Amino acid sequence: MLKGFINAEIWRKDSQAFLIEDGKFIRFGTNEEIEKECSSQDEVVDLKGAFVVPGFVDSHMHLLEYGNYLRNVQLKGTHSTDDILARLRARLSSPEKIEWIIGRGYNEEEFNESHIPTKQDLDGISHYIPISITRSCGHKMVVNSKALELAGIGPDSTIDGGKIDFEHGWLEETALNVIHDIWPKPTVDSMKQDILAGAKAANRYGITYVGSDDFLSLCDDWRMALDAYMQLSYQEKLPLRVEEQCEFISPQEFAAFLDEGYTYLVGDDYFHIGPLKLVTDGSLGARTAALLKPYNDAKDTRGYMCYERAEMKAFMELAAEYNMPTICHAIGDKAVDTVLKLYEKIVLPGNPLHHGLVHCQIMTPEQTQKVVEMKLNCYFQSLFIDTDAKMLEARVGKDRAKSSYPFKTLFEGTCASNGSDAPVEEPDVLKGIELAVTRTSLDGSASMNRSECLSVEEALESYTDRGYDAFVQKDHLGSFEEGYDADFAVIDHNILNMKPEEIHTAKVIMTVMKGNTVFER
Questions:
Q1: What is the largest CA-CA distance in the chain?
Q2: Among the residues of 324-426, which ranges form H helices?
């Protein structure tokens, strides 16, 4: 059966209508031409002048973790410790049996008070049920006494690559893994449910393709997440495409993965193996990102690296030996510096393997220039600007702030694509486009270096063309061409004609993947 779409405003296309068969675009033309080709047995959809773009690409997120986040206590939008406690109490009062209370999404930078949740606050909810709440960035956690007890954490406990504050119940970086290890154990089936929940939520924002880091999201057994994805892919149940950004506990585990025959681009049209992913430092919000000089608002810390240099080198060399790219989460300028020095040994001229840098936040001008010279793939998140603009100067000072988040420079000089890092942020593409263009928080209270603003066209490209380039998938995806897979999003307004500060008010009204409608408002 044919499916026609008429009365559309198609990005970069003079046509106003198109025809789909077997999940592919087969014709573009006028309304009359497309309607003429359709019989009474075929479906014709009138888009009533809506704006049609290729399916959006979120180039870096955590799809499995995002789906899991959606069924736990969501703390985004809380503005005080009392707000957090109210949401936790609501979960405690639910009729279902409660073994754990797990929440995520608070950001103390958004609080209207200075008090940050502590162990004592969570103990006020329950001494008997373990409770953990994770900061929006995913690099800091607060737990109650019961959770500390179950984890075997005491007053004198320490951990490499992390920090434990037993008195307040505050954990940072690798210390979070101790709590993750005692959370209720997922199954492959529960992971599949989480993946589908995350995918369907992403579809609401027009997303049809994601780069997702999942192997260590809910447990330390990468095979479980891989099995969940491969089963969904084989059954053709995924409503979007996934490139897995592969994270491992150790080089030995990575070697076992490679020994089983997995490497770059192995998979199918729904799910395939992407690059090796290394998380080399923490986050700016939690003050755990590794900086060359101390934080401006915390002179006693520079954050810290999550790996020894030798271990990072072992990971990278092993990946390169199997023609697999490495992409590195590196938020602080010390982490960026360490990664770039290691890349100098493995990145070939022109970067044919597509090694890359994730986040691209606190960078010196010299580092930015080096990234451009090496042609590294850059995975940035303009969505972070909404909150980070309000704290950037306080965290790193005016001088470092001027060269940070250099998205325009990277867009012009590298393959730079955009994403959400969900569940750190909601994968709201239209909001991300606005923030890339304005570099100003949605409430207008703060902005970043506006010489690094993208145009609306460029911001749209960062969620489309550049994402498909990053995933090496431009031969049959991402364009309105006959024979290409019919992945597209329909928006109620042409965002190219809107005031930049109003783009976030536009709405995705339909998302189509392989010709199938996966979301309709």
A1: 77
A2: 333-346, 365-374, 385-388, 392-402, 407-413
Nearest to 450 by CA among 461, 468, 438: 438
Which of helix, strand or coil describes residue 143? Answer: strand
Could you tell me the two tokens for 449?
Answer: 């270096």
Residue owning tokens 């025809």: 19
Place of tokens 């154990």: 185
Q: What is the C-alpha radius of gyration for the chain, rounded to an integer number of angstroms?
A: 23
pTM to 2 decimal places: 0.94
| Token pair recorded at residue 297 | 């608002």
Q: How far apart are CA 114 and CA 129, in angstroms?
A: 27
Query: In this predicted model, what pLDDT tens digit does every residue of 278-334 receive, in sequence order?
Result: 999 999 999 999 999 999 999 999 999 999 999 999 999 999 999 999 999 999 999
User: CB–CB of 380/359 below 8 Å?
Assistant: yes
Tokens 């959370």 map to which residue?
A: 183
In tens, the pLDDT along 16-42 reads 999 999 999 999 999 999 999 999 999
**Neighbour-count burial for 459-478, b at 16+ CB within 10 Å, e otherwise:** bbbbbbbbbbbbbebeeebb
Concatenating the DSSP letter of every residue in 39-103 gives: -TTSEEEE-TT-EEEEPEEEEEE-HHHHHHHHTSEE-TT--SHHHHHHHHHHHHTSSS--S-EEE
C-alpha distances (whole Å) from 38 to each of 18, 49, 71 are 11, 20, 43
- Compute the 3-state secondary structure of the chain and give helix, strand, coil in percent, each to the nearest 5: 35, 20, 45
pLDDT in tens, 98-120: 899 999 999 998 899 989 999 99
| Residue type (1 letter), 168 | H
Per the structure block, which two tokens stand in for 164? 């434990």
Please report where in the chains the tokens 């207008």 appear, as a residue. Answer: 444
CA distance 487 to 512: 5
Dist. CA 277–CA 61, nearest whole Å? 12
For residue 431, which phi and psi values (nearest 5 degrees)? -65, -40
Asked whether the CA dihedral 384, 282, 294, 111 is positive or negative, the reply is positive
pLDDT confidence of residue 97? 82
Alpha-carbon gap, residue 85 to 115, rounded angstroms: 13
